[in-house]
User: Which sequence fits this backbone?
């Protein structure tokens, strides 16, 4: 597991309230580097997969219009203590990341 | 007749004696009165919200972002720096009073021996140098910025509690006050021009944050990503009025911080917050 | 430039393969409970690259969109900073498969889309960038039809004293 994903979770009545923060520059490709005066190329996460254990429960597509260090809040039904919430992401540089958290 | 003369003298002398313009507490009371006038019905504890005072819309965005701040990574970087032993093997917690917990509200402090102000950031650098390290630049986001983004949070919730209890300390307070009221730069504006006179009022489309409540919430993350320590913020303000800024960590900005922080005495500290 | 284009089409082609790879990276694959599994779940570059809102709508297949009050969009009235505009979307539509978010005046109006399985409660919150004051549209694909709601969000330039 790399260090790019942060979770805040709360399990209540079988519903997992999952908050996710992914560290990523989400560069639009419009910004100029103040030091080099060159355009910083667009660099953004395009796909996020959210799993409850091995079940893919949500697919998220992002664009450069999503804020830097992107945030996501979702709720998953029929969750239990000990379930693993897993997130994988891929960006347009073919880089990827992954994080997981156990529901407590 | 004698009685009348005594009463007359009493009335003449005491008002002068009790409204000493150099008494820091009198200055703070004066600022409070101005803001009470500019912000009727707003509790002093709400002044910490700065430009968001009176805007439920802005406060809601603030709370939403603060629920899971995008600048989490910077604070984590600061924590890692805080916990990493210095070349001598000691940590910052070993150096700082009370292991760095609930102390930031006391700083800056006037040091009688050196006759200089000591800021929280100077404590950090002092610790670093005493333990085999090289002092950080006061405006370096990756070192002093990130480190204080974490370390100052160890004092979250404590009240600002700046003391001005000696002649030397009073001189520093006065230096800070003099600068606060001094018109500078191409725009010929003083801090007081905006943040006292218009503190809590609209200036063009912005609500100007009142002086009281500002110093408690640094560093800030503008747009949720760009870190500014208090001194870096002073510098941006000076540039905004077309003045050449003092250096971060300079005696001038330390004096300003001393005066500025004193005015927020009694308000709770909260470091590393979102600002637009 | 050309390299980026090739990259994108490459991503498109192996989009589902990447999805499968990340699943296998996680260990054994037991089942995929994604109702929208039948839908194309790759990043739709054609739609995301459209610079016109109505063209982007057409690109996602939303030729007929019915306004509804069954989608609730919570946005700021005046965004404090266009770089980080919090949105919260809830909905009461049956059989919702996919949610699209548009910021009408962004250089590319399609901002994000969410493919939701039946395991997802009807709530999504995220933070988007808006270049200027505009309508934010949430379009839901539910039981084969498109429904939408919109809200005007004003955007101010960041506060005083910015670098």
Assistant:
């Amino acid at each position: 597991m790399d260090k790019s994903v942060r979770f805040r979770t709360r399990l209540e009545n079988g519903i997992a309230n999952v908050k996710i923060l992914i560290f990523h520059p989400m560069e639009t490709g419009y910004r100029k580097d103040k030091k080099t005066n060159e355009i910083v190329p667009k660099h953004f996460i395009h796909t996020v997969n959210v799993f409850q254990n091995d079940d893919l429960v949500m697919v998220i597509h992002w664009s450069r219009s999503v804020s830097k260090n992107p945030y996501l809040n979702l709720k998953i039904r029929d969750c239990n203590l000990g379930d693993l919430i897993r997130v994988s992401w891929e960006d347009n540089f073919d880089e990827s990341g992954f994080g997981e958290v156990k529901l407590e | 007749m004698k009685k009348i003369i005594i009463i007359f003298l009493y009335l003449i002398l005491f008002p002068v004696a009790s409204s000493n313009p150099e008494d820091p507490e009198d200055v703070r009371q004066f600022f409070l009165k101005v803001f009470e006038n500019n912000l009727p019905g707003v509790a002093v504890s709400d002044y910490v919200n700065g430009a968001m005072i009176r805007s439920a819309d802005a406060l809601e965005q603030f709370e939403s972002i603060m629920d899971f701040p995008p600048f989490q990574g910077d604070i984590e970087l600061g924590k890692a720096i805080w916990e990493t032993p210095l070349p001598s093997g000691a940590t910052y917690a070993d150096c700082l009073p009370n292991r760095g917990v609930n102390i930031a509200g006391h700083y800056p402090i006037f040091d009688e021996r050196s006759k200089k102000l000591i800021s929280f950031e100077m404590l950090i650098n002092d610790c670093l140098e005493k333990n085999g390290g090289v002092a950080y630049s006061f405006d370096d986001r990756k070192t002093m910025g990130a480190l204080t983004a974490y370390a100052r949070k160890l004092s979250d919730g404590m009240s600002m509690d700046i003391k001005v209890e000696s002649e030397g300390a009073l001189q520093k307070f006065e230096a800070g006050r003099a600068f606060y009221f001094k018109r500078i730069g191409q725009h010929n504006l003083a801090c007081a021009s905006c943040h006292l006179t218009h503190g809590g009022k609209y200036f063009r489309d912005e609500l100007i944050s009142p002086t009281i409540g500002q110093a408690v919430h640094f560093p800030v993350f503008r747009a949720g990503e760009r870190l500014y320590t208090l001194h870096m913020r002073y510098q941006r303000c000076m540039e905004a009025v077309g003045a050449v800024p003092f250096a971060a960590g300079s005696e001038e900005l330390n004096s300003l911080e001393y005066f500025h922080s004193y005015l927020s005495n009694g308000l709770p500290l909260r470091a590393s917050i979102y600002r637009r | 430039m050309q390299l980026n284009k090739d990259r994108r089409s490459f991503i498109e082609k192996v989009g589902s393969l990447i999805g499968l790879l990340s699943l296998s990276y996680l260990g054994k694959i037991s089942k995929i409970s994604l109702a929208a599994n039948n839908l194309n779940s790759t990043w739709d570059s054609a739609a995301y690259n459209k610079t016109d809102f109505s063209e982007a709508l057409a690109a996602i297949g939303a030729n007929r969109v019915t306004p509804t009050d069954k989608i609730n969009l919570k946005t700021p009235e005046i965004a404090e900073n266009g770089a980080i505009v919090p949105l919260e979307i809830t909905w009461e539509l049956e059989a919702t498969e996919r949610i699209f978010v548009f910021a009408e005046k962004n250089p590319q109006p399609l901002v994000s889309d969410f493919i939701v399985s039946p395991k997802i409660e009807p709530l999504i919150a995220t933070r988007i960038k808006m270049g200027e004051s505009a309508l934010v549209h949430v379009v839901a694909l539910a039981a084969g039809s498109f429904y939408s709601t919109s809200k005007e969000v004003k955007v101010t330039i960041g506060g005083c004293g910015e670098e």
Observations:
- The interface with chain B takes residues 76-81, 83-84, 86, 127, 156, 158-163 of chain C (CB under 8 Å).
- The first strand of chain C starts at residue 65 and ends at 67.
- DSSP finds three helices and nine strands in chain C.
